[in-house]
């Protein structure tokens, strides 16, 4: 059967009651302290990564059904520019629409309404003005459509979500081939690619649960990439997500920043300092507060010795613990609570 769990100091006092003046001297010599009221400006050191701003993700969909004849992009994270050729698409539907236009131009050139409708149909299928002029000039239909990117950024296959994009941002992710291949068929309206714009990015920071209550939108932040300290920048907390991560139980904070000039690679590790607002409260040295799992206790000095007293802590900052409740302003407590805790005995605390 387990021993009853008592306060280490109580054991000392029992020895004193049995006539040990020497033990009483040990108890009386234990330093005590009281809470002091102060206002502090915390600095929270956190870690994080650079990620895409999902508000600036664009999609590329097929305007016409057909087969991919040639592909000019092959890997995730491949950088494409607006107007860059992405693929060539063979489409019988496109060829039919072009033959209709050529037939009207040859047999009914005065019918501006029908010719205009035929031209508009081809434009809606993704044919550019230059391509349309070339068909009219040569009089020959082309069943192959050149598809160009309307955006600038990193290219990914359709459906590649943000968590996957972050996870593969290393060297292995850079060489992963796109699942879109030459010879594949696509349907009209099918989303084929996504383009992630890097000009605006996120610094995604992980804040420990004990500090989460301090962080607010608008707090000043300094972010320093570990691989490029010279590209550090200052910003502000733009968003505090209202949930904790499943794996590490940390709070996620987002800082939006302009990455068009800094060009910090996606997935880069960063160190950051967050300056929340000032905190006013009652404080004790961290050594005076002992953790008992879900409870925190101090050792309150009374006439007959020390006893465990449950307290409700706030934040911890520079070896000081904020005490929210459970202790009076003038109550003396052991300065080093761990000294009094018997490592083999449990401390009973009144709820």
Automatic annotation (TrEMBL):
GO terms for cellular component: outer membrane-bounded periplasmic space. Keywords: Signal, Transport. Residues 202-264 form the CusB-like beta-barrel domain. GO terms for molecular function: transition metal ion binding. Residues 285-340 form the CzcB-like C-terminal circularly permuted SH3-like domain. Residues 96-142 form the CusB-like three alpha-helical bundle domain. InterPro entries: 3HB_CusB, Beta-barrel_RND_2, BSH_CusB, CzcB_C, MFP_Cation_Efflux. GO terms for biological process: copper ion export; plasma membrane copper ion transport. Residues 1-19 form the signal peptide. It comes from the Bacteria. Gene3D superfamilies: 2.40.30.170, 2.40.420.20. Pfam families: 3HB_CusB, Beta-barrel_RND_2, BSH_CusB, CzcB_C. Residues 58-195 form the CusB-like barrel-sandwich hybrid domain. PANTHER family: CATION EFFLUX SYSTEM PROTEIN CUSB, SLR6042 PROTEIN. This is Cu(I)/Ag(I) efflux system membrane fusion protein. It comes from Dinghuibacter silviterrae. The lineage of its organism: Bacteria, Pseudomonadati, Bacteroidota, Chitinophagia, Chitinophagales.
């Amino acid at each position: 059967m387990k021993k009853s769990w008592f306060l280490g100091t109580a054991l000392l006092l029992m020895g004193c009651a049995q006539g040990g003046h020497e033990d009483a001297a040990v108890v009386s010599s234990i330093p005590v302290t009281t809470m002091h009221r102060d206002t502090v400006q915390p600095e929270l050191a956190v870690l994080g990564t650079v990620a895409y701003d999902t508000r600036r993700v664009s999609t590329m969909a097929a305007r016409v059904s057909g087969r991919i004849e040639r592909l000019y992009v092959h890997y995730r994270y491949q950088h494409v520019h607006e107007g860059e050729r992405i693929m060539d698409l063979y489409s019988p539907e496109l060829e039919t629409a072009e033959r209709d236009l050529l037939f009207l131009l040859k047999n009914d050139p005065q019918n501006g309404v029908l010719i205009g409708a035929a031209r508009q149909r081809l434009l809606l299928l993704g044919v550019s003005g230059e391509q349309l002029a070339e068909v009219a000039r040569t009089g020959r239909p082309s069943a192959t459509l050149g598809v160009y990117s309307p955006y600038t950024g990193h290219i990914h296959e359709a459906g590649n979500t943000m968590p996957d994009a972050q996870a593969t941002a290393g060297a292995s992710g850079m060489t992963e081939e796109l699942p879109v291949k030459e010879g594949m068929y696509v349907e009209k309206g099918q989303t084929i690619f996504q383009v992630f714009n890097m000009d605006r990015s996120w610094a995604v920071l992980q804040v420990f649960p004990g500090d989460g209550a301090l962080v607010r939108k608008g707090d000043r932040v300094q972010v320093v990439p570990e691989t490029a300290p010279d590209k550090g920048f200052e910003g502000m907390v733009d968003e505090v997500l209202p949930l904790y991560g499943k794996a590490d139980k940390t709070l996620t904070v987002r800082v939006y920043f302009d990455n068009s000039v800094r060009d910090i690679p996606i997935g880069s590790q960063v160190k950051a300092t967050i300056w929340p607002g000032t905190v006013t409260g009652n404080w004790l040295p961290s050594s005076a507060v002992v953790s008992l799992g879900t409870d925190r206790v101090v050792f309150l000095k009374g006439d007959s010795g020390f006893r465990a007293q449950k307290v409700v802590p706030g934040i911890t900052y520079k070896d000081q613990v904020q005490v929210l409740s459970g202790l009076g302003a003038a109550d003396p407590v052991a300065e080093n609570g761990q000294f009094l805790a018997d490592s083999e005995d449990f401390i009973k605390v009144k709820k």
